[in-house]
Amino acid sequence: MKVQSVNPWNLEVIEAFETHTAEQVDTIINAVDEEFHDWKKTSFEHRAALMNKASDVLLKNKQKYGEHISLEMGKPIAEAIAEVEKCAWCCRYYADNAADFLSPKVIETDAAKSLVRYDPLGVIYAIMPWNFPLWQVFRFAAPTMMAGNTAILKHAPNVTRCAIDIEEVFAEAGFPENAFRVLILDNENASKVIEHSLIRAVSLTGSERAGEAVASTAGGVLKPSVLELGGSNAVIVLEDADLEQAVDTGFKSRMLNTGQSCIAGKRFLVHEKHFDAYVERFTEKVNALKFADPLSGDATIGPLARVDLAEGIERQVDTSLEKGAKLVTGGKRDGAKYEATVLTNVTPGMPAFDEELFGPVAPFVKISSFDEAIELSNRSSFGLGVTICTGNAEAVAARAHEFDEGAVFINELVKSDPRLPFGGIKRSGFGRELSLDGIREFVNVKTVYVK
Fold it and tell me: Could you confirm whether 389 is annotated as catalytic?
């Protein structure tokens, strides 16, 4: 069986890859487990040296890896190269900090000595999506491997070349051959790997449906999992916000990666004082976006990663219009290309409000107060993050606890940063990636008591 990479810009097949057989999968998992027993004995200094080399490899090859990202999922080349650079940063961050994050913690008790250790678990299995095909993987792999685990990646089939690139990064950096391996599988066979006796835990970034399947399978065999799922983040613009700054922040939040980001702003709750002017300025920016070949350097917006994804956005917008939303601009599809779209008159009960819009569609809701904004923001099955634009950041920060979210960003778009924990609540998943919290997800927190 084969999986294909298809260029979403022109819908041409780039490459086809043979999927691994069940026998090959078993062989690879066994090899990665065997390597774990040596890798866990290495020092943090040794792992850090290799992880810094991985950072160097990424930067050296950022043009090539960026081109592969653009070809396979349609991201403008400048954004693709920036993604590779962010992966290099993540590698260096964990190379610098893993030893401190996982150093044993002495705790005073009635024992002669008592402490907590953070020991690696074994082979960790990652199921990763196509929207940030390198970043999603490195923010998992860098902490996981620095903790002393080994890793297996099952990537989205449409970015298989990117998966092979990641394997190449670790090999070129000098990691042992089986410290990180790629499995080429279709989505239907991905969950079966979780049940393998040598897989110790699983990390998924993906859809709600995928999260339900993985959580069910992992729970059925009592294995820990981290789920980073969808989001329907609100961008709240309060009465005291700086209008131009708020427009810039909201526009970047919505249109980065052609809107294909779990942490993108997907519902705009704008105070009535600013509403008309905000929509007008936002629409001007939308209309200035340019479709072009993502590799050309001229594109400021790309296609969606697959035709079926563009068709899904088209259905959500069309249904919202049927329910009373107003189309300000956009709304047309050509293959995998979907125009950046602005909707007003959006209300709860419409797909544009209730569902995750994984594409360049900005739905606007008029609000009259911060209290109303909080209520509408929380009226979602998701809980990943929220952006609030205000002239009184201190007052807004004092109410951060009122948001049912994993992150509250004030006067900035929600973004992932190696220095800060990342993850959501409700149907946005559970567990955390990045920072200290992320590296401790896949370790055995072990109590040692000496009398």
Answer: no
